[in-house]
Every structure is written in C-alpha cells, then in structure tokens.
DNA sequence: GTTAGCATGTAAGGAGTTACATGATTTT
DNA sequence: AAAATCATGTAACTCCTTACATGCTAAC
C-alpha cells in the first residue's frame, strides 16, 4: 500500500541510514535530490518527522554526539523498527514505485537493495514510460493533427524527453544484467542511435 | 496573483478557444498535454468547470450545434469575459509562469500572445532552471562528495536533463529573436553539441 | 446480451503549501 | 549593530485524488 505520502518517509529513512541528521539538514538534502522542481516546505517536513517519531521509526539522538555545546537542534537517527520499515518499503515493488518522485527516491537508495528489486523497479518504470508514449502517439494519430507550431514543438520535445529517459533506463538495465563486465553497457551504447 | 489552481483554468480557456468541447473531451486533451506524468481526475475537472460557469468565463453551448440527436453531454464555449480573462492570464508574467506545469500550458498557447511576452516567459524559465543548476552545483561542492554510485548517477542524469532543457529554451529564444529568417535557429543548432 | 468505453458528477479525505511565529548564531 | 541564515514549529487553507454513484451507447 505504498501511498503518495510514504515518499517523504522513505527518503527520510534512507538519508538517516547515511548518518544522524537534524530537520533543517534533512530538508536541504531532500531538496537537492527530489529537487528538480519541487521544494519541500517545513510545513510538510516537521509534521512528518513528528509522525515518524510517534511510530518509533526514528528517535532523537541523545548524549553528546556533538563535541562541546551547539545550537538548539534535534538530531534524529533511525530505530531498529525504522530500518525494518525502510527495507520493507524498498522491496515493495508496485505501481507507486514507477512514479516520478517515488522512483527517484528508490533509485537514490538502490545500494540498499538487491539486484532483483532494482531490475523490477527499472523495468517497471521503463514500461510505464513506454505505455505513456504509445498512448499519446495512438491518441494523436486518432485526433486530426494540430497545426499550431508551438503545440507541435512542445509535443515533439516531450516525446524526445521521454524517449531519452527510456534509453537511460535501458542502459541501466543492461548495466545491472552485465554485472561486473563493461561489455553490456558498451553494447547498449552502440544500439542507442545510429550516426546521423 | 497567478496561483497554482489557475493552471487548469488557463488550460481550459485555451482549449475552448480552439472550439467548443465537453468535459470528457477536455480531460482527454488536458491529459495529453500536461500528460507526461500527471493525470487530471474528473474530481478536479468537473468542479473546476462548474466554478468557471459560475464566474461566467464559460457557458453551455445551446442550440443544435450537433446534427441530429446525440448522447447526454454538456458542450462548453468561452464567453467574452472568458476571452478577456485568458488574455489577462497569458500576459501575467511572473514566477508562477516558470513553473513546470504552468510553463507548459503557456507555451502550448503561445500563438495567442505576442513575441514580447513569449520572450519574457522563455527567458524567465531559462534563468530559473539555470539558478537551480547553480544552486545544486554550489551545494554539492560544499558538502563532502557522496560516493554512492546510484546517487551519483541520478545526480548526473538530473543535471544533464536540466542542461538539455536550458539548451532547448536557448534555441527557442534565438528562434523568436531571429523572427523570419532561419539563420538564428541554424546557428543555435551548431552550438548545441560538437560531434563525438 | 454483455463488455467496454462514453459521460457526468459528489463526498471524504490526504498531502503539502503559505503564512505566521519565534529565537539563536554566524557573518559582515 | 545589522543582516543573513540556521533552526523549529503551527494553523488555515487549497488543491487534488480516491472512491463512489449513475446511466447511456457502441461494439462484439
């Protein structure tokens, strides 16, 4: 049941697995990663942290982790339950995992999962994008073509972007399959595009 | 005061300027354009249409526009007030106009505005993306570099995508400036990328 | 005749933004 | 001493999605 809101939770758990952090720092990092557009406000982050505290997924880091006195800040760390929840969420491969934001977060923490999961996520995302492409192209074929140059250019650019994303995913999938050797990646490179 | 919710309104007004349409048809077209990800649900569209009806931006198309009987459907068309509102919204160039969805909609209906506005929107969007790029690169330089390969790959891909978008915008800006001649566009083309 | 798609809506609820509120610390 | 930015939070509100509810029409 990976709902939309679990995305922040997943990201926070993932980041805290890289070391204890306080809210402000988390927000900065979050904005850097899911940052190509969306900016997460304090009004979402802090309530989310409180909720995670209540659910015992994270806890305040007590004791003097910081040398000497520091400014007022609450440093969080994951609990054992948080670690379990993180693993559970990461291996929960479903439609929600192919969505833009959710996919990015999962990818960012791919090192925490095994190859089987990684492939399922990458392939799932790829077919979802491919479906979109097909659907749009099919519907555009049905409707009488638009003549507006800007509409046409926007559409061309959109299709191109998605196609690039699909190629990127294909390369990654090949890389995953080709494990240690570089061969698969190089092979994928040549099939990418013919020279103009 | 272009808020987020005005995006649907802008899109609906724009589409209805291309001809009268009913809600179901509007949704299909909307999903095709702002469609690379987001899908607009009926639960957002129909209430939005009702609201626009109340504000006299659109009206039900009465009379027999359709030859002979058809199935139950409500065909909308823009009112005079709606046309004014559309012009007003389109020329309202502010931060909201550089946002992903809002930008796409504006671009889609660029033919309805003059070059001055188009350039302001394109340049605004470009500097916004450039700022993002700079900010991210600056902050990444400050923080000690991450070593995780997936995190690094995601970041590389993100930077590349935004850079492509910036180049696309630059080409469009040049094309706008080069008005009737193809020279500017062709010139921009060569600066795009060197051959591998 | 029954499935698939057309067509319109409503109610409840979630997720996140905006705006507000506060204060410490570092830099200029 | 002022400005920037670090740091944490709350309340109201908006937008939108999900799920539900209904019924027609075309195709198989």
TrEMBL record, chains A, B:
GO terms for molecular function: DNA binding. Residues 119-153 form a coiled coil. Keywords: Coiled coil, DNA-binding. Residues 12-87 form the Transcription regulator PadR N-terminal domain. InterPro entries: Metal_resp_DNA-bind_regulator, Tscrpt_reg_PadR_N, WH-like_DNA-bd_sf, WH_DNA-bd_sf. Transmembrane segments: none annotated. The keyword Ion transport does not apply. It holds the Pfam family PadR. This is DNA-binding PadR family transcriptional regulator. It comes from Nocardioides thalensis.
């Amino acid at each position: 049941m990976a709902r939309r809101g679990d995305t922040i939770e997943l990201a926070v758990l993932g980041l805290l697995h890289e070391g204890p952090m306080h809210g402000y720092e988390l927000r900065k990092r979050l904005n850097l990663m899911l940052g190509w557009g969306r900016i997460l406000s304090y009004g979402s982050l802090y309530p989310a942290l409180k909720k995670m505290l209540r659910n015992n997924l994270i806890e305040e880091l007590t004791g003097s982790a910081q040398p000497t006195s520091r400014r007022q800040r609450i440093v969080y760390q994951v609990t054992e339950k948080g670690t379990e929840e993180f693993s559970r969420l990461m291996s929960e491969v479903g439609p929600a995992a192919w969505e833009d934001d959710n996919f990015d977060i999962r990818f960012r923490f791919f090192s925490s999962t095994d190859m089987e999961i990684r492939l399922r996520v990458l392939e799932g995302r790829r077919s979802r994008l491919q479906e979109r492409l097909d659907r749009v192209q099919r519907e555009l074929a049905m409707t009488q073509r638009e003549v507006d140059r800007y509409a046409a250019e926007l559409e061309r650019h959109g299709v191109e972007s998605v196609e690039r994303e699909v190629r990127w995913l294909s390369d990654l999938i090949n890389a995953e399959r080709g494990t240690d050797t570089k061969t698969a990646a190089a092979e994928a490179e040549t099939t990418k595009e013919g020279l103009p």
